[in-house]
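__Record contents__

***
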Amino acid sequence: MLLIQPIQAISDKWEHSYSRTKAVYPNLNQINNKFWPAVGRIDNAYGDRNLICSCLPLEEYEKENINIEQ
């Protein structure tokens, strides 16, 4: 499997031994169903299984909601 980012596929500079078509569609079945992930993975599968929320605690949102209603 060839790993190539969309920006590499559209770049004017192409110095690989394989074609752009082969890079973007390593399997011809992908021509009609190509999917470009929107974001990269953090720590691969470990990061997917061990998510960390950086949001405020729910109590903080509840306090804001009470202040708005008063």
